[in-house]
Every structure is written in C-alpha cells, then in structure tokens.
Amino acid sequence: MRSRALQTASRRAALPRPSTSPPIRLASNLSQRPHSDNVSFPGALKSAFSNKLAFQHPQEWTALPTYRVVDQHGAVVDPTWTPDIPEEKIVKLYTDMLYISILDIIMFDAQRQGRVSFYMVSAGEEAASVGTSSVLEMEDTLFCQYREQGVFRERGFTTKQFMSQLFANKNDPGKGRQMPVHYGSTELNIHTISSTLGTQLPHAAGHAYAQKMRKLQNPESKSAVTAAFFGEGAASTGDFHAALNIAATRSCPIIFICRNNGFAISTPTLDQYRGDGIASRGIGYGIDTIRVDGNDIWAAREAVKRARELALEDGGKPVLIEAMTYRVSHHSTSDDSFAYRARVEVEDWKRRDNPLTRLRKWMEANGMWDDVKEKDARDVMRKEILKGISESEKEKRPPLKAMFDDTYEELTPDLKEQMRKLREIIEKYPDEYDVSEYEGGLESLKEKK
Ligand SMILES: Cc1ncc(C[n+]2csc(CCOP(=O)(O)OP(=O)(O)O)c2C)c(N)n1
Ligand SMILES: [K+]
C-alpha cells in the first residue's frame, strides 16, 4: 500500500501546474478589454460582465409562444405537419375523448342524484389528457392529478374499472378507501391519485431518478420515462419547485405536463402567479420547456413525442410542457363556478373553442367522421356507461376489514383495538349499519386466531 503522503503528492502532480505569473497590466489597459468576459463565479459561469445597471423586468419580455398544429376551426396551421397515425387510431383518440365527456356528464348527474358522493369532470381538457397519453409508452410510469380521466381511458381503463372506483365496490383496487375519481392502476402503470396537491411531483421525480439508476445498472433494459400531470394551481406548492429542481440537478427522465386551465377552484391565474405562466418556471430551473395549445390534440401529441426523446437523451433529463386550456366545468360537484366567473365567459369558450369539436372538424374535413358516426358512437358509449353504473351499484362493498389493511403487514395493537371497537358499535346499533352491503359482513372484522 502506498503511503498517504505519496498519494497526496501524486494527486498534486496530476493537477495542471499554474503557468508562469501573468504580466502586470495597467488599469488603462484593463478598461479597454471588452466587458463581455465571462465571470468565473461558480454560481453563474455563463454570465458576462456588464457595466450597465439594468434590472430585468419580466413584464417587458415577450411571452413564450403557444405551439399549435390545428386551429379552433380544425384547419391545419403548420404546413410541415401530417398525421403520424392511421385513420382507425385517430378515431380511437376521438372516441376516447368523447367517452370521457359522456362519462363526465352522466357521473355529474349521478352525484346530483345521490348515487356517488363526489365527482370531477374534465370538460374542455380532453385533448390535454388523451393527446399526451397517446404518445407515451406502457413502460412509462404516470403520476396524475385528478382531472386526467382521459389518460386512464387512453391507456385502457375500462368502464367497470372506472365504476368500481367511483362506487367503491369490492372490485375497486383501492378497496373503497379513496374519494371518487382517485383512480390508480398497476397494470396501466399509473400511480394512485392523491388529493393533496403537488405531492405526486416529488414522487414522480424520485421515480424518474430510479429509472435512470436502473438503466445505468442494466444498459440493455428498455428505456422508459416518467410523466407527471398537474394543474397550474398545484404549481404553487413547494413540492412543485422541489420536484423541478431535483429533476433538473439529477438529470431525471421526466416529462412534467401542466394543464393550465385558468382556475384553481376559484383562484384565477392572475391571483395564482405573476410572470409568464408555468412554462417560465421550467426555464428558470434550466429545464427544456414548451407551451402548447392544450385544446389541440395534435400539438399535444407532437410536443410529448419530442419531449419523450429529449427526456431520454444523454442518459436522461427533465422536460416541461405547459398545455394551455380552459376549465369549462365547475371545479367539482362541490363547486358552483358562477359564483366567481361570468356564465357568459364559459358559454363563450364552449362555443369558440373546444378540443372535441376541433378534432371532429378536422376529421370531418378529412372524410373520417360524420353526424351518423357521431350519433352511433354516443349511443353505444352512453349505454355502456349506464350499464356499468347499474352493475357496479349492485356489487358488494369491500370487506369492512379492508380499512385496516395494507399499512402494516400485521395489524398493530392499536389497530386491533380500533377494529374491535368498530365491531362493538355495529353490533350495538344493528339498525344503523347494514353490514350485509359489505363483502363478508361482520365476519371480516373478527380476528382470526
Ligand atoms: C396541498 C393542497 N392545498 C389545497 C388543496 C385544495 N384544492 C384542491 S383542488 C385545488 C385547485 C387545484 O388547481 P389546479 O392544480 O390548477 O388543478 P385543476 O383543479 O384546475 O385541474 C385546491 C386548491 C389541496 N387539495 N391540497
Ligand atoms: K387549474
């Protein structure tokens, strides 16, 4: 073994030797040097010195452009673009968008009828979810917020799966422990939705970091990215900033997809942030960024396709997409948005620009769709959804015991005690609790010896 002194000496020898002392320059000589010399402060290596006292005023900067392929009338505005998929796949995208818009209308009414406790529609934002999802691979892991039913549908979530979660029956993989619309799917590689805004973003960044490390360990494995969806309101959480920064500094293969729909419940964007939207945040963190027209499914697809390539370049890097759209719906079934915005504004958006109408107009112009096809598709989906509701409502609820499961491998003494108390209460007030609704009735709460 070499001595420590020897090691230090050889390391020193490997360092570049300082050149001979530079000639002393006169002050006059220095002032003639161009002031564009880069600074050498470690925190800003690309900055040039300037002798001008000039603050940057972001409001004077030109806003980032919004990329689109097809305008609100369904006319192609990018002459270099041609569709990259055959007709049947285009029809599938359109019918996925149509499906969630019908699902939303029916489920909103079902909540009003007292059949489900809560619902959130995604009206006006169908292209931002279906379009982005359609160019991601099944190996890519997705983290959603709660308005991306289009992502679930596009990846193959079935009517039965939607309904089992919404009605919290025994087929719900979450075993009825979440609010309605908080879907998740192991087969579809989509993490379960969390109500707490922004928490999916650091999870997603961490997941992308793990993907990167796994790829380093096993270079032959298939490359995959993480995609994280969120609203511009969620972008005000600390978690958003933590996620962008860690993804940027660790160079993680992740696509951040923001649906900027103008409102976070009752908070309009003007009160949500200053500066140029969420896209400018991406740039601030040194992340490749684009703003797209979220009502244009083709723009959403092109942007995510390219983003996926970028995210996998050089071993991984983050990308941010801000999809501009408008929340046509109320925030949820617990909200009346006409308390904070004019009805006429919403009606105007519906008439002026809608992602479904946009794609439909384009398809009609290309001979792929007509009124008859529209009516038939609507009828079939409506029937399928109504059938799904009535079947799911009849199913039993998950076992009562499920509420204690899956946190600890074995129930802790305090959980056992809670379970015993629950059983006691139900036995004491049998008229108040109909346990026959639950798989296994009261039996599931009895401790196995
Ligand atoms: C940490 C946290 N703060 C506040 C809320 C309450 N909340 C639920 S949804 C929402 C608005 C979120 O808006 P945005 O992220 O833009 O998504 P959108 O609803 O417009 O799709 C708020 C404030 C929450 N769920 N979690
Ligand atoms: K929003």
Brief synopsis:
It catalyses: N(6)-[(R)-lipoyl]-L-lysyl-[protein] + 3-methyl-2-oxobutanoate + H(+) = N(6)-[(R)-S(8)-2-methylpropanoyldihydrolipoyl]-L-lysyl-[protein] + CO2. By secondary structure, the protein is of the alpha/beta class.
Give the biggest beta sheet. Answer: 6 strands, parallel
The parts where pLDDT drops under 50 for at least 5 residues are 5-20, 26-32
CATH architecture of the largest domain: 3-Layer(aba) Sandwich
Globally, the shape reads globular
Bound molecules: thiamine diphosphate, potassium ion
Beta strand count: 8
What would the average pLDDT be, to the nearest integer?
92
Helical stretch tally: 15
- As laid out across the biggest beta sheet, the strand order is 2-1-3-4-8-7
Gyration radius, rounded: 28 Å
Report the order of strands and helices: HHHHEHHEHEHEEEHHEHEHHHH
CA-to-CA gap between the ends? 61 Å
Helix content: 40-55%
Which range does the strand content fall in?
5-15%
InterPro entries: Alpha-ketoacid_DH_E1_comp (IPR050771), DH_E1 (IPR001017), THDP-binding (IPR029061)
EC number: 1.2.4.4
Catalytic activity: N(6)-[(R)-lipoyl]-L-lysyl-[protein] + 3-methyl-2-oxobutanoate + H(+) = N(6)-[(R)-S(8)-2-methylpropanoyldihydrolipoyl]-L-lysyl-[protein] + CO2
Organism: Emericellopsis atlantica
